[in-house]
């Protein structure tokens, strides 16, 4: 006949989720039985992190103790990239084996290894592997913590966070060099500190060259999402394509000629073509869009496409992350304020005669727009005009006087000003 103590332990076991994390769970015990035993002997009634509020209340009632408030938690993988190539992972049976094979130059040493060794310890079917990335089913995950155990995740990048959290920073990079981070991973945090400075509650800090969120004080506002230069902060409440201050702009609209000609020569990428051809040999613009789409391939938001052979930015999708800037070999992509403004899509430094022969949509450099701008927002630079969007008041005078109809107007929907309210700015700032 079981003793009253054994009966209590068995009762507690019946309340526990029953996955038996084999010593990997957050309770620190080797089994659910040991966890129940520890609770019965004075351990916290919420010692098992996977228990719901109802379960903890029931355990407290059996023990005649006061219950405690439960904060439901789930697992989160602080990485959205893929450090290894498929060839490196071929034949590897575990994350440990993949890591032992070593990294190649330029690969992130802090990211998810992509073989899913953590999935094996999840007893609740909350983890899966898709395209070498761990997917967490938040409806099934109960925050037991088994996957986050240091003996399971070699990279120590799985975190247990509050289920109600809405902002996430999916990066654990320790790399100091911003350029290396950008080249190795489109989702990498560059530790610029903009999110840390913008956070009104001081909930973000830079640790080991990447940003982390303290969820005990995070209010879930959009300040960090808006200010993130790389736009990698995930926000499940707000649309990141709306919460932005700046977007990309391609200073060219005549790349169609380059793209078609260079394709015919066998080139498939802009950088490759730029390094191996002389534009003047083919009567092409030396500063314009090459038209082979390197920028379109690195854009995570499908915000750049080739329209008539020229890179064009969809400002409704662009978030201003700058990945395209670092990819363009001609450096003709810039970041401009996301608000209504005139823009001049031309970077040509050629004289007017040469421009006329090469491109029918280039800025003539006549200076009429500069002379007629009432705010001095336009200036001549390298034989083409440039609009300073910070000064431009969208009066349209430049459009009226432009003989080549080069100057374009960008209309921004009213909802963009939501971000200014979040950051305590007024609409015109």
Description:
The strands form eight sheets. A two-stranded antiparallel ribbon has the order 1-4. Strands 2-3 form a two-stranded antiparallel sheet. Helix content is 25%, strand content 14%. It is an alpha+beta fold and 429 residues long. The protein folds into five domains: 60 residues, 3-methyladenine DNA Glycosylase II, Chain A, domain 3 (Orthogonal Bundle), CATH 1.10.15.40; 93 residues, Alpha-Beta Plaits, CATH 3.30.70.20; 67 residues, Alpha-Beta Plaits (2-Layer Sandwich), CATH 3.30.70.20; 108 residues, Alpha-Beta Plaits (2-Layer Sandwich); 72 residues, Alpha-Beta Plaits (2-Layer Sandwich), CATH 3.30.70.20. The protein starts with a helix and ends in a 7-residue tail after the last helix.
In short:
The chain has 429 residues and is α+β, with helices and mostly antiparallel strands. The protein folds into 5 domains: 4-63, Electron transport complex subunit B, putative Fe-S cluster (3-methyladenine DNA Glycosylase II, Chain A, domain 3); 72-164, 2-Layer Sandwich (Alpha-Beta Plaits), CATH 3.30.70.20; 172-238, 2-Layer Sandwich (Alpha-Beta Plaits), CATH 3.30.70; 244-339 and 418-429, Alpha-Beta Plaits (2-Layer Sandwich), CATH 3.30.70.20; 340-411, 2-Layer Sandwich (Alpha-Beta Plaits), CATH 3.30.70.20. It has helices spanning 4-15, 32-40, 53-63, 86-89, 95-100, 178-184, 194-198, 223-227, 256-264, 270-276, 294-298, 323-327, 352-358, 368-372, 397-401, 418-422, and strands at 73-77, 127-130, 133-136, 158-162, 167-168, 204-207, 210-213, 234-235, 246-250, 304-307, 310-313, 333-337, 341-343, 378-381, 384-387, 408-410.
């Amino acid at each position: 006949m079981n003793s009253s103590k054994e009966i209590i332990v068995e009762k507690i076991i019946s309340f526990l989720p029953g996955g038996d994390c084999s010593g990997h769970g957050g309770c620190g015990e080797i089994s659910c039985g040991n966890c129940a035993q520890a609770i019965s002997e004075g351990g916290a009634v919420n010692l098992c992190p996977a228990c719901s509020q109802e379960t903890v209340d029931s355990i407290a009632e059996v023990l005649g103790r006061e219950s405690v408030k439960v904060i439901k938690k789930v697992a989160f993988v602080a990485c959205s990239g893929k450090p290894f190539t498929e060839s490196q992972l071929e034949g590897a049976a575990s994350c440990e084996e993949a890591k032992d094979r070593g990294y190649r130059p330029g690969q992130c040493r802090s990211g998810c290894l992509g073989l899913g060794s953590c999935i094996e310890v999840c007893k609740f079917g909350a983890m899966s592997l898709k395209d070498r990335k761990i997917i967490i089913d938040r409806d099934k995950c109960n925050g037991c913590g088994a996957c986050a155990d240091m003996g399971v995740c070699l990279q120590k990048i799985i975190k247990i966070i509050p289920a109600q959290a809405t902002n996430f920073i999916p990066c654990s990079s320790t790399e100091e060099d911003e350029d290396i981070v950008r080249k190795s991973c489109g989702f990498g945090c560059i530790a610029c500190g903009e999110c840390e400075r913008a956070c009104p509650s001081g909930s973000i800090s830079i640790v080991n060259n990447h940003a982390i969120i303290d969820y005990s004080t995070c209010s879930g506002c959009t300040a960090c999402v808006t200010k993130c230069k790389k736009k990698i902060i995930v926000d499940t409440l707000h649309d990141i394509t709306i919460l932005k201050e700046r977007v990309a702009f391609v200073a060219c609209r005549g790349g169609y000629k380059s793209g078609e000609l260079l394709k015919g020569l066998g080139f498939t990428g802009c950088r490759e073509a730029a390094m191996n051809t002389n534009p003047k040999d083919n009567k092409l613009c030396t500063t314009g869009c090459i038209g082979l789409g390197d920028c379109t391939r690195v854009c995570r938001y499908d915000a750049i496409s080739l329209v008539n052979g020229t890179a064009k930015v969809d400002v409704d999708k662009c978030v201003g992350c700058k990945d395209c800037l670092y990819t363009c070999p001609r450096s003709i992509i810039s970041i401009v304020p996301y608000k209504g403004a005139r823009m001049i899509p031309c970077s040509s430094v050629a004289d007017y005669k040469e421009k006329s022969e090469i491109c029918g949509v280039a800025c003539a450099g006549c200076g009429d727009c500069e002379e007629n701008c009432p705010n001095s927002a336009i200036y001549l630079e390298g034989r083409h005009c440039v609009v300073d969007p910070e000064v431009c008041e969208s009066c349209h005078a430049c459009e009226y006087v432009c003989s080549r109809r080069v100057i374009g107007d960008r209309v921004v929907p009213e909802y963009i000003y939501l971000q200014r309210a979040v950051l305590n700015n007024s609409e015109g700032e």
